[in-house]
Structure formats: structure tokens, C-alpha cells
Design goal:
Blueprint: H1 17-30, H2 34-45, E1 54-58, H3 64-76, E2 79-84, H4 87-90, E3 98-101, E4 112-118, H5 126-138, E5 140-151, H6 157-173, H7 178-187, H8 197-201, E6 206-211, E7 214-220
Parallel strand pairs: 1-2, 1-4, 2-3, 4-5
Antiparallel strand pairs: 5-7, 6-7
Helix pairs in contact: 2-3
């Protein structure tokens, strides 16, 4: 995806055939830690998915998380339900289990062993993201977990400036041009709303990964 094909300011959407066609390359340029975080999610999954368990991949895009979870799904005879709202992205999906083309915030979730929100909540309305977190928390089986990997509000003060610059440098190193980096940020205006870590703290979230403004959190079932 070049800067000329990135949707315009405030117009980012996954319901765009060009975004879907180039997503896998584009996301790894813009988020150089993408594969590292994916691997971390897969490792954590081994600790929570039980025999014949149920796993949700919420905001599945092309099936990245589902593919990473394939070994444990096979080993534990577990079921994966992937949820993706964009028909354009769903057309590129390839992973084990089944795909539901549906909006995450209105989906009827069954009690589960593991749910993964990987770069999904930040593209919902703030109130919808908060409501979805509450709904998922209420559907967790004893011993289950919710993994959240999302953009969060920037760190305060000078450390926030430093980590933002670190992120820009990493994107450039990964192959994104300066024009693409700026175009993507402007395209996300009002569409991508970073999460407030304080909201996740209500559920006892434990941070297991951070790169700049992006972080991974583990939430365990209510005691």
C-alpha cells in the first residue's frame, strides 16, 4: 500500500478492497512488532485453552491469530470462531475454524476459554469498546482468559515523546516511507481511538508486552 492508496484524512476503513489486498504487508511495515506480539499471544494461549475448548478471534482480519493458534487448537481439539466485520477483509481470511462476518460489539458470545482482541477495540466507538469488554468479561469460564493487544493512550511527559519517536523510527526501518507513515496517521484520525489503560485496569489486566503506544494485556476470569 502506497501513500496514494491509503485512504484520506480521517477516512481509514477496512471496507476497502485495496486495504484488504495489501493488509498483511502493510501491517508489518506500520507495526514492526506485529509478529512478535502474535507469537506472544500463541504462547499465552497454551496456558488457557482446555480440551474441546472454545476460542474467539475478535477482529480477525485475514486470520493471522487463527493461523498462529492452529497448533494448540489441533492439540486440544478446540474450536475457533473468528469474527470480522468487513466483508472485504473476510474475503482474504484463511485460518482454522469458522468465520463469522459480524460486528464484534453486537455478536452473541458463548462462554469461552480464550478470547483475543488483537487491534480491534481501538476501531470501535469508545462506548462500544467499553461495553464489549464488559460483555466478554461476563462470558469468561473459570480459568479462562482475555488477551487484548491494542493502541493505548500515549505515556505522559517526555517518555511519551520518546516512545512515539521510537515507533516512527521502527516503522521507517521496517520499510514504510515517511509519506506512508504520515498518511496512515492522518487517515486514522477519529477512526482509531486508543484505549485508556485505566479501563483495562478495572478488569485486573496485566501488561505483558509494550512497544511505544501499543501494548498487550492479559485479563483472567473473575474469581
Amino acid at each position: 500500500m502506497t501513500a496514494t492508496t491509503i485512504p484520506g484524512e480521517g477516512a481509514w476503513t477496512f471496507e476497502d478492497a485495496n486495504v484488504a489486498d495489501t493488509f498483511d504487508r502493510h501491517v508489518r511495515e506500520q507495526l514492526p512488532w506485529y509478529d512478535l506480539a502474535t507469537g506472544a499471544v500463541a504462547q499465552i494461549a497454551w496456558h488457557y485453552v482446555g480440551p474441546s475448548g472454545l476460542v474467539y478471534d475478535i477482529g480477525a482480519s485475514t486470520g493471522n491469530i487463527g493461523r498462529a493458534l492452529e497448533p494448540i487448537l489441533s492439540a486440544r481439539s478446540a474450536d475457533l470462531v473468528s469474527i470480522e466485520a468487513s466483508a472485504e477483509m473476510a474475503a482474504k481470511w484463511s485460518a482454522p475454524g469458522v468465520l463469522e462476518v459480524a460486528r464484534a460489539e453486537s455478536y452473541d458470545y458463548a462462554p469461552f476459554d480464550l478470547a483475543v482482541c488483537f487491534l480491534a477495540l481501538m476501531f470501535l466507538r469508545v462506548d462500544d469498546a467499553h461495553a464489549l469488554l464488559a460483555r466478554l468479561y461476563s462470558r469468561m469460564l473459570a480459568g479462562s482468559a482475555l488477551i487484548v493487544v491494542e493502541r493505548t493512550l500515549p505515556l505522559a511527559g517526555y517518555p511519551g515523546v520518546i516512545t512515539s519517536r521510537m515507533t516512527l523510527s521502527a516503522k521507517r526501518t521496517a520499510g514504510a516511507s515517511d509519506e506512508e507513515i504520515v498518511s496512515k496517521e492522518l487517515s486514522l484520525a477519529g477512526v482509531q481511538r486508543p484505549l485508556d489503560p485505566a479501563v483495562l485496569a478495572r478488569y485486573g489486566a496485566v501488561e505483558f508486552l509494550r512497544f511505544g503506544d501499543f501494548a498487550g494485556y492479559l485479563i483472567e476470569a473473575p474469581k
